[in-house]
Amino acid sequence: MDLSLAPPAADGSGGSALRDGLLQVPSLANTYGAYLIGTFFGTGLYGFFVHQVYRYARLFPTDTLFIRLLILTVMILETIHMVFTMHTCYYYTISNYFNPAVLNRGIWSLNVIPILVGVNMFISQLFFARRVYLIGKHYRFVVAISMLFFVVEIAFSVAAVGEVIAISTFDSISKVNHLLAGTFGAAIVGDTLLTGSLMWVLSRNRSVETRQIEPFIETLNVYIINTGLLHDVLNTVSFIAVLALPHGLIHGSVSIIATRLYGNTLMAVLNSRKLNVSRGIEVLDGEVSMNIFSRATRLAAQERWNVPQVPDSSAPSVINIQVTTEMGGDMDKRMSKNPNVNMDEVRRTDWKTARQ
């Protein structure tokens, strides 16, 4: 399908062929132009993601192996995804800038993007699924349902890649739209289940006083970023775009940004932690029950994953004991003369005497 730049024949057939070839070229505004804009934003978000990974490595070097491997995997996938999107833009706009017929054919870096997006979403959402799982046993069913939808998302993305490779021209890309819509739709359902659970627990756990004194930007960060609501909204936009604009790549542009937000949200949640593994646990004597230690372990795991905690009144967090104070010297003499002496008044009198 490569177009020849040779002069047209005398009968005009060459010019007619050239015009026919140009008529088959897709519009750049809503295809590769939109994809290029998404790549620009995605590259900026990738730089922010790398900065957050660097900050995480300095602040939390003792995190569990699973979390560190999760971050490493997400970073590798994010890097591959960024390289592939940049290669696609370079191939169509630079390497073949004077070969418009190429615009109607797919390149490998563009064809495999759906599977990269699906896997990246799945790996990142493992972290959020673990957060909801640690909230309590009542939320484990929600986690199971959401993970089922994420598996369906992977299946749709694999099928989309197979269909993209099978088609020959950009004009046939609408055949892949139902598979892409399935990918985004499954991701939306899974994300909404996890995000809704986190927002529900946050609304129950945060007191009215906290909401009144907390800065507005902090509230936005907690409810929009840390719960994963933002990339859920962008997946919804991609889902609508792939159905409303089936012959363009606007959904691919939004998908690039949404994919970057998965990694950025993951790092934002990890870097906003305040680790204090014994928070709320005070042992004041030597006789404690095992549920105190089990609760301390559970709280430590929740803090490690930045899990919003629901009020738990089943186990006491503080053990109170009575303390007997022995006094001697002048205090004993005054108490022996007057057993009903007011101890607070005696302390205030001694304090005033000491100051004089």
Automatic annotation (TrEMBL):
It comes from the Eukaryota. Residues 344-356 have a biased composition (Basic and acidic residues). Residues 329-356 are annotated as: Disordered. Keywords: Membrane, Transmembrane, Transmembrane helix. Residues 188-274 form the DUF6534 domain. The chain crosses the membrane at residues 32-54, 66-87, 107-129, 141-167, 179-202, 223-244, 250-270. This is DUF6534 domain-containing protein. The keyword Glycosyltransferase does not apply. It comes from Lentinus brumalis. InterPro entries: DUF6534.
